[in-house]
Design a protein that fits this description.
Distance between the termini: 87 Å
Largest sheet: 9 strands, antiparallel
Pfam families: TMEM43 (PF07787)
Organism: Symbiodinium pilosum
Shape: flat
Order of helices and strands: HHHEHEEEEEEEEEHEEEEEEEHHHEHHHH
Number of strands: 18
Radius of gyration: 33 Å
GO biological process, one term: lipid metabolic process
InterPro entries: TMEM43_fam (IPR012430)
Low-confidence stretches: 1-32, 48-69
Keywords: Endoplasmic reticulum, Membrane, Nucleus, Signal, Transmembrane, Transmembrane helix
Number of helices: 12
C-alpha cells in the first residue's frame, strides 16, 4: 500500500512539473524498490519522449533539482539506445521472379566484361614481363653526384643517396603540424566518435506460395571513424551524428613534399616519392606538436592522439574528435626509372616511366633515336596511353565499351612500365626482384577477380530457375537449395575451363609455348570430364 501511495505521489509531482526528490527516510524495502523502479521508468519515458520530439541526440528535460539519475536508469537508457531493432519484410513470389530477371540482365553485362578483363590482364602481363626483360639488360647503375646528359633517355638505377625533402610541408587544417624541411610525406587523420549502424539479414523461404521473409536486425554502436557516417539514413531514429568542432571535417589528408632531392644532382617526381613509405618507416608527428588548435578549439594530447574535448580521451561522447599525425622523414632510397633533364633545376635530372616503344626490325633504331622515343613515350599521360590502347574511338567507342573501359582502367592505374622507388639501398637485382613480385601479385589478383566476376555472372543466369522451383508447396525451398548446389558446381567447372581457355588463347599470342601447354591441359581436363560422365551413364 505504501509503495502504491509513493508511486501516485511521484507521478502527480512529475505531471505538475514540480521537483521530485528521493525520499531518504523510507525504511520499507518494498517501498524503496518501488520508488527506484518508478524513478527509472519516469526518466526512461522522458528520454524516449525527447527522442521523438527532437529526432536527434537525446537530452533529458529534468532540471537540476529533479530526481537524480540513478545508475540503473543510466544503464537502461544506454541499453535502449543500443538495443537492436528488428524489421520483418515479406517479398512475394512474383516480385522475386521479377528481381531474378534483373539478375539475368546484370549477368549478361558482366560476362563480357569479365572475359575482356581476363584477356587484357594477360596482355598487360605480357607487356610488363617484356619490359622487365629489356630492363634487366639495359639498366645502368650510376652515382647520384653528377647527372650525365648522355644518359638522358636511359634506364638507370641509383641507390647511393638519401631522399631529402626541401620544401615546407604544412597541414592546412592544423598549422601547428608543420615541417620546414626533412619531411617527405605527411598524413593527418581526423576521427569523430559516431554512431554506426550494423545490419544483419536472415532470409527464410515460405513453405507455401514461394515468397520470402527477410528478418533484418539493426544494431547501433559508437565507434571512432575517419569517415563521416550519415545518420539520416539510419533505420532507427535517436542516433544522430554530430561533430563538436565546428567547420572540421573528418578524414585523412596526405601531403607530399613538392621538392625532393636525391643525392647532389637528381630530383624525385611526386609519383616516386609517394611510393616511399611502409609501416615501419612512418614516425609519430604528434610528439613534435605542443599545442593543437582549430578555430579556437584546443586539443589536448593523450598517448598517440590529440582529443577534443580533453575528457574524450577517457570518456568520449558522440561528436568527440581526435587527431593523429604521422610523417615520413628523409631517408635512404633506391630508384629505377628513365632519366631525363630536369627543366626546373639547372644541371640536374629527374625521372620518367620506362615503357615499351617500337624499335624497328632487328633493332633498327639508333641509340639516339631510341632514347628520344623512350623519352617521348615516358612523357605521355594516362589519356594518351588510353588512346593508344582503346579498341575503338570516336563515334564508335560505344561498340566495345567493355574493352575500352578495361583499357582506361589499366592506362590510368597500372600501365606496363618501370617506374619505381624503394626504401633503403637496394641493388639492381633486388629492385627487379621486387618489381617481378609486384607484377605476380597484380597478375594473379586480377585473374582471381575476373574469374569471380565470371562465376557470379554465370550463376546469375540461373536465378529464375531457382525461384520457379520455390513455388512447389513445402518441397520448393529444398528443391531450390539442392538445385542451387548443383548449378554452383556446374558453373564452377564451366567457368574454370572457360577462364583457362581464354588465358591459353591470350598466351598463344603473347607467350606461344606456354599457351599451347595450357590448351593441351584444358583438352585433357575436358576429355577426363567427358570420360567420367560416359562411364557413370553406362
Amino acid at each position: 500500500m505504501l509503495a502504491f501511495l509513493l508511486s501516485s505521489l511521484l507521478l502527480t509531482a512529475n505531471a505538475d512539473g514540480n521537483k521530485v526528490t528521493v525520499l531518504a527516510d523510507v525504511h520499507t524495502d518494498h517501498a524503496a524498490d518501488s520508488m527506484r523502479l518508478l524513478q527509472e521508468h519516469v526518466v526512461l519515458q522522458e528520454h524516449l519522449a525527447t527522442q521523438k520530439t527532437r529526432g536527434g541526440l537525446a537530452k533529458s528535460r529534468l532540471q537540476s533539482g529533479s530526481a537524480a539519475l540513478l545508475p540503473e536508469a543510466s544503464v537502461l537508457i544506454q541499453k535502449e539506445e543500443q538495443e537492436p531493432t528488428t524489421v520483418v519484410t515479406n517479398q512475394s513470389w512474383f516480385s522475386r521472379l521479377g528481381d531474378s530477371f534483373w539478375s539475368v540482365i546484370a549477368g549478361l553485362i558482366m560476362i563480357p566484361f569479365s572475359l575482356v578483363l581476363m584477356w587484357m590482364n594477360e596482355r598487360r602481363n605480357a607487356q610488363q614481363e617484356s619490359i622487365l626483360q629489356l630492363g634487366v639488360t639495359e639498366v645502368q647503375t650510376i652515382a647520384s653526384k653528377l647527372a650525365d646528359e648522355k644518359l638522358h633517355g636511359t634506364l638507370v638505377h641509383l641507390n647511393d643517396a638519401d631522399a631529402k625533402g626541401l620544401d615546407e610541408v604544412k597541414d592546412r587544417r592544423f598549422p601547428a603540424i608543420c615541417f620546414e624541411t626533412g619531411c617527405l610525406r605527411l598524413k593527418t587523420q581526423v576521427q569523430v566518435y559516431q554512431w554506426k549502424e550494423t545490419k544483419k539479414e536472415e532470409k527464410k523461404k515460405d513453405n507455401l506460395g514461394g515468397g520470402e521473409t527477410t528478418i533484418t536486425k539493426f544494431e547501433y554502436n559508437k565507434v571512432w571513424s575517419d569517415t563521416q557516417i550519415n545518420s539520416a539514413s539510419f533505420n532507427q531514429p535517436g542516433h544522430s551524428n554530430t561533430i563538436s568542432v565546428s567547420g572540421l571535417q573528418c578524414g585523412t589528408e596526405e601531403l607530399t613534399n613538392t621538392t625532393v632531392k636525391y643525392g647532389e644532382s637528381y630530383y624525385l617526381p611526386k609519383e616516386l616519392v609517394q611510393q616511399l613509405g611502409g609501416p615501419m618507416k612512418w614516425q609519430d608527428a604528434n610528439r613534435l606538436v605542443k599545442v593543437l588548435e582549430f578555430n579556437g578549439s584546443r586539443f589536448e594530447r593523450s598517448e598517440d592522439w590529440f582529443y577534443y574535448p580533453p575528457a574524450a580521451a577517457q570518456a568520449p561522447t558522440v561528436g568527440s574528435v581526435r587527431v593523429s599525425s604521422r610523417y615520413l622523414p628523409d631517408g635512404p632510397a633506391s630508384v629505377v626509372a628513365l632519366q631525363m633533364e630536369d627543366k626546373q633545376h639547372p644541371n640536374a635530372a629527374t625521372f620518367l616511366p620506362y615503357r615499351l616503344v617500337y624499335r624497328g626490325l632487328c633493332g633498327g633504331l639508333t641509340e639516339d633515336a631510341l632514347r628520344e622515343a623512350l623519352l617521348a613515350q615516358g612523357q605521355k599521360g594516362s589519356d594518351e596511353l588510353y588512346e593508344e590502347e582503346a579498341w575503338t574511338s570516336g563515334p564508335f567507342a560505344c561498340l566495345c565499351c567493355c574493352c575500352n573501359m578495361v583499357a582506361m582502367c589499366f592506362a590510368k592505374l597500372a600501365p606496363p612500365q618501370i617506374f619505381a622507388a624503394f626504401n633503403g639501398h637496394s641493388s639492381s637485382e633486388e629492385c627487379f626482384e621486387k618489381l617481378e613480385m609486384i607484377g605476380r601479385l597484380q597478375k594473379w589478383g586480377l585473374r582471381l577477380l575476373s574469374w569471380v566476376l565470371l562465376y557470379a555472372a554465370t550463376y546469375a543466369l540461373f536465378q529464375p530457375l531457382l525461384v520457379v522451383l520455390d513455388i512447389f508447396p513445402f518441397l520448393g525451398p529444398y528443391l531450390s537449395t539442392g538445385a542451387g548446389w548443383v548449378v554452383g558446381i556446374v558453373v564452377f567447372v564451366v567457368t574454370a575451363l572457360l577462364a583457362t581457355t581464354i588465358i591459353s588463347l591470350a598466351f598463344l599470342i603473347y607467350h606461344p609455348l606456354v599457351g599451347l601447354a595450357y590448351l593441351v591441359g584444358v583438352g585433357l581436363a575436358v576429355g577426363a570430364v567427358i570420360g567420367i560422365s560416359h562411364a557413370l551413364s553406362s
